[in-house]
Structures are given as structure tokens and as C-alpha cells.
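sorry for the late reply, my laptop died twice this morning and i had to redo everyting from scratch. anyway the thing you sent over, i finally got around to it. pasting the sequence first so we're on the same page, its 101 residues, then the predicted structure underneath. double check i copied it right bc i was rushing
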Amino acid sequence: MIKLMALYKKPDDEATFLKHYNEVHIPLVNKVPGLARTVINRVTASPLGGDPEYFLIAEMHYPDKETFDAAMASPENRACGKDLMSFAKGRVTLLIADEQA
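ok and here's the structure:
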């Protein structure tokens, strides 16, 4: 399982961010071909105390590297990237992970 993970820092305006994220961005994400599952994690606390570094962590799951590579090259994914930069530029870190059992 290959995951594209997006780690979002807390936005200045949470309500506006979440409205765009849920009503615009996630529907675009769900159109990416080969996407097997999307998991959205709302970060609520840090076990070490203080404010957590991230506000939201999204995981987009793909069954294998070939499917992931094709998805990343798709026009649907390019639309996601363009939208992402419109509302989260400077606030998002993207990672690719290979899930280990």
C-alpha cells in the first residue's frame, strides 16, 4: 500500500479552511483514478503537551506503486495540486509512504 500523506499546519481561519477543504478539495481528491481510500485525521492534541504541530493529516491510499504513479500523472491529480496551492500553500507538507505491515 502506497500512501500520499498531506500534513496541514493550523490555518488562520479554521472555518474557511475546512469549508473549502470539505466542499471543494476532497471532492477533487476523490476523483483521482486508482484511489482506494481516503482517511482524514483531525489532530486534537500533542502527547507531549502544547499545541500540536499539525491541524489535519490526510492519507490517500493506493494499492501499489504502479497505480500510485499513474494517479500522480493524471489530470485529476493535477487539478488537486492546483487547488491545494490555492488554499494551503506554505501550510502543507506532502509525504509518500510505503505502508509496512
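DSSP finds three helices and four strands in the chain.
thats about all i looked at so far, will dig more tmrw
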